[in-house]
Amino acid sequence: MHLSPDDIIFWQHGSLKLNATIAFTWGLMFVLAVGSKLVTRKLSTDLQRSRWQNLLEIVVTSINEQIAEVGLRPAEKYLGFLGTLFLFVATASLFTIVPGYEPPTGSLSTTAALAICVFVAVPLFGVEDRGLGGYLRAYLKPTFIMLPFNIISELSRTLALAVRLFGNMMSGTMILAILLTITPFIFPIAMSALGLLTGMVQAYIFFVLATVYIAAATRTRKPEPEAKAERKPEAPAGPKPEGKIAPKPED
Amino acid sequence: MDSMTLIAIASIVTAGLTIALGSIGPALGEGRAVATALSSLAQQPDAATTITRTLFVGLAMIESIAIYCFVVSMILIFANPFWNHVIAGAAGK
Questions:
Q1: What is the ipTM of this complex?
Q2: DSSP secondary structure code for residue A221 in this structure
Q3: CB A100, CB A75: distance < 8 Å
Q4: Which domains does chain B have, with CATH numbers?
Q5: Which residue of B has its CA nearest to A205?
Q6: Which candidate from A1, A3, A160 shows the least CB-CB separation from B64?
Q7: A76, A203, B32, B82: which has the highest count of C-beta atoms within 10 A?
Q8: Max CA-CA distance within chain A?
């Protein structure tokens, strides 16, 4: 009964180990990269398009909308990082359908790596958006007494991201393994379906939490006179369309 | 009772208690969260997508407490450092 795919070792040379986690991670990366490359070879912008292109468009635009809905604008800037997080965790869970596969996110190494990526990305995007001084000043935000608590919360939510994803994936595979030894085949299939569902939900949670953390670090407020100047050019355009619409119903 | 037996008993009992007590709180919290989400859905059905999305995010945050307890329980059963140390000592003899 192994806790994680780290225990399955394919090849070993001294202290270098090729375990199942690395093999499955590279397999996933290969499938995602080569699949996308094959689909985007001939992109078409008219109504006739291949269904794979359609699928990729749905996926990318949905992720873009979700990022914008959480409040992170412009969404395209963060689409690469956040979309990759979501797609990697989602496909890692989805491929459980393939026999003999174990999700690499069931290993604490992978989830810790993903959480460290988010931990590094939040200050990077924050400094890029607000400048170093502005970003560091945010740590003193309610009062400067909150500085140690802000730092601790930054570290603990990174840890929480890693352990949450690891625990959900590991518990799914472990319950499946235990059930396979004691019950007829129908129950492990139901548990596998439940594992797929929780995998998708956890991928979405990871993605939304990363988005919220980056949004909290890059939140900039629009200065007041800029907002008023934006409203003025709109006002003269107001009465004109109404004047055009009004005569039409009389026809 | 030698130390090996003591470590084994303590690990097994703690593992069982951890997951048993640790799932009570999150279960109650999730029940309250879903109940409030359902009543707000009944009040404002057109905000259904926002409410559902926020509900799932909140449920995942609450669930992580139970997941921490589960991870500790699994470590005590399968990757127990004290048990490994004692077993290595007994095998060395």
A1: 0.77
A2: P
A3: no
A4: 3-87 (1.20.20.10)
A5: B57
A6: A160
A7: A203
A8: 88
